[in-house]
Amino acid sequence: MPPPSFVVAGTQKAATTWLYECLHEHPQIFVPETKELHFFCDKADCPKSRHARGIEWYTSLFPDDARYAASGELSIDYMFYDYVAGRLHALNPRLKVIFILRDPVDRAYSAYWMNRRYKPDLAAFGDFIEPEHDFVARGFYCRQIERYLEVFPRAQIKIMIYEDLVRDPKGCLVEIFRFLDADPDFEPASMRQIIAETKVMSPNLGRTFYTRLSPLLKLRPLLAAWRFFKRHTGLKRAPGNGGGAHQPKYPPMDPAVRARLRDLYREENQRLFRLIDRDIVEWSR
What we know:
Layout: E1 6-10, H1 16-25, E2 29-30, H2 55-60, E3 70-74, H3 77-80, H4 84-91, E4 96-101, H5 104-116, H6 134-137, H7 141-149, E5 157-161, H8 162-167, H9 169-179, H10 203-216, H11 220-233, H12 255-276
Parallel strand pairs: 1-3, 1-4, 2-3, 4-5
């Protein structure tokens, strides 16, 4: 099994952090302690890129251990940049690729509020409704997935839908675990937890939390303690049978802005629906 055997390539704001925590718990799946390695992205596109460290550094992160049915990583930018699919194929032509797709309108709005955490003076969301803007451009899913289909067989690509995950987190995990040849009956504690929710904070509190306190939780001892605490106390447990997704804690989108985005994505969504042979009705409401 040449490492890695899989990647979760995106998309942004579609419960990939929740999926990472669930994969991290599975005894037959290995993921690094750092969720996003950004290795295959260029520094010019991604400030967190580790591409300069070299391929030997990257592959050394994944164990050649018979205990694991699969080993891989999750980096949401891999879906967006057009050169990444070719780089992944050059590393491992048998690589399995997972995408989680969310209603592009809601995804764009969630990304906006994520950025507001660091930039409280950010202009209104309606000012960014342009196809080239990052908030919007990441929602043109079909063209991004087609780049992967140019180099990988369809059987090696798994396309999941965020709205399915909201309704049935267990069923979606069973699909993913089977795709990775891991025990599909394993139920991680994180499956019923709210992970990486986007919050609205005052400018001072948001700046303090996300620039000073949040990075501390990425330190290995604190991260391990925080994961143990969440998984065994029920502190972050989702209501009902949900998991990984929940009602957003930011203001609802202006209906006029939503309508503009619906029009912008309509053609691309139809191409995607043909690709996956499914009409996702929630994306048209």
